[in-house]
Amino acid sequence: MKQLIAGAAMVLLFLSCTNDSSETVEYQTIYRIPVVVHVVHNGESVGSGANISSAQIKSQIDVLNEDFRKMTGTNGFNQNSDGADTLIEFFLATEGPNGETLTEPGIDRIDGGRAEWPKGFLRNPIETTLKPFTIWDPEKYFNIWTVNFGGFASRDLLGYAQFPNMSGLSGLNVDNGSTDTDGIVIGYKYFGSSQKGNFPNLIAPFDLGRTTTHEVGHWLGLRHIWGDGDCQYDDYCLDTPLAAEPSYGCPTNKMTCEELEMVENYMDYTDDGCMNIFTNDQTERMHTVLETSPRRKELVVFGQEPIY
Ligand SMILES: [Zn+2]
C-alpha cells in the first residue's frame, strides 16, 4: 500500500513537470464591465458632501473587483468550499457618450438641484426624472447613481437596483424595468471603503463598500439569500442554504430552516465587515445574465486570462 502511494506520487510529479515545460496555457473568460458613476450633488464643491471625491469612487470600484474576483489578501477573499471567483470585473469608463476622453474617468458630476432624493410610491423623482435625464447608453455603460437619499420613506435606504430583463432565470420577471432607468442607485454615505482612504462621509457598519456589491448582485440577477420569505422560499441557488429571514449585524452559528445560515453571503443584510461570499450557483446566474439579458450582454467586454 505504501509503495503504491509512492508510485502514484511519482507519476503526479512527472505529469506536473511535463505541464510546466510545455507551451500550452489554459485561459478563462473574464467578464469586464465599463462603469459610469453619476455623482448627484446639490452644488457642493468636489470632495464635499454628496459631491464625493474621485478617490472615494475608485475605492468602491476596487472593492467590487476584490469581492467579485475573491481576491487573495482582501476583504473579498474566503475559503468557503462554495465560495467562487465570479470572473466578473469592473472598470471606470475612459470615454464619454460622444467618444470624448473623460477628465475624470467613469465619473459624471450632476448638480441635481435638491438636497434629498426620496424613493417611494408617492414621490419618486429618481425614477421619473433623475435617471431618464442623466443615463448614459446602458448598452455601453453600467450606470451607477450616487445620491443623498431622504424624504418620504427613504432615510434608511442604502441602495437599490433594477433587475435584468428576459434572463430566463427562475425567480425573475421577464420585464423588470425600462431602458432609461437601468442601473443601481447608492446612498453616497455607503459608496466606497473607509479602509482605502479618509472618507468621513461613510457611515459604519456600511462603510466597506458592500452595499454596492449587494446591489450589483441584484443587477446581475441574484435574489436575496432568504428568498424574501420563510423556509418555503428560495433564492434559486442550491449551494446557498435556505434561510427564514434576513440577518443583521454578524451573527455566528445562526440556524433557521434546519440549516446553518450563510450570513457571509453578499446577498444577505449583514454588516459590511461580515460579508465575503458569492457562491458557484450565484456566479452561474450572473454569467447567464451577462450572456442573455438585453443591455447586459451588449455591455460586457469579454477578455481572456491565463489560468495559473
Ligand atoms: Zn437587496
Overview of this protein structure:
The protein has 308 residues and is of the alpha/beta class. It has one domain (25-306): Collagenase (Catalytic Domain), CATH 3.40.390.10. The protein has 6 helices and 9 strands. It has helices at 2-21, 54-68, 125-134, 210-219, 280-292, 296-299; strands at 27-41, 88-92, 107-111, 142-147, 159-161, 184-187, 255-256, 259-260, 301-306. The strands form 2 sheets. Strands 1, 2, 3, 4, 5, 6 and 9 form a 7-stranded mixed beta sheet that branches. It has a two-stranded antiparallel ribbon with strand order 7-8. The radius of gyration is 21 Å and the shape is globular. Pfam families: Peptidase_M43. Keywords: Disulfide bond, Hydrolase, Metal-binding, Metalloprotease, Protease, Signal, Zinc. Belongs to the peptidase M43B family. This is Zinc metalloprotease.
CATH topology: Collagenase (Catalytic Domain)
CATH architecture: 3-Layer(aba) Sandwich
Number of helices: 6
**What characterizes the major β-sheet?**
7 strands, mixed
Structural class: alpha/beta
Low-confidence stretches: 1-18
**Strand residues, percent:** 15-25%
The CATH homologous superfamily name equals Collagenase (Catalytic Domain)
How big is the Rg? 21 Å
Helix-strand topology string? HEHEEHEEEHEEHHE
When the domains are counted, the total is 1
| Terminal-residue CA separation | 32 Å
CATH class: Alpha Beta
Look at the structure and give the mean pLDDT.
92
Signal peptide: 1-21
Family: Belongs to the peptidase M43B family.
Domain Peptidase M43 pregnancy-associated plasma-A: 135-291
Keywords: Disulfide bond, Hydrolase, Metal-binding, Metalloprotease, Protease, Signal, Zinc
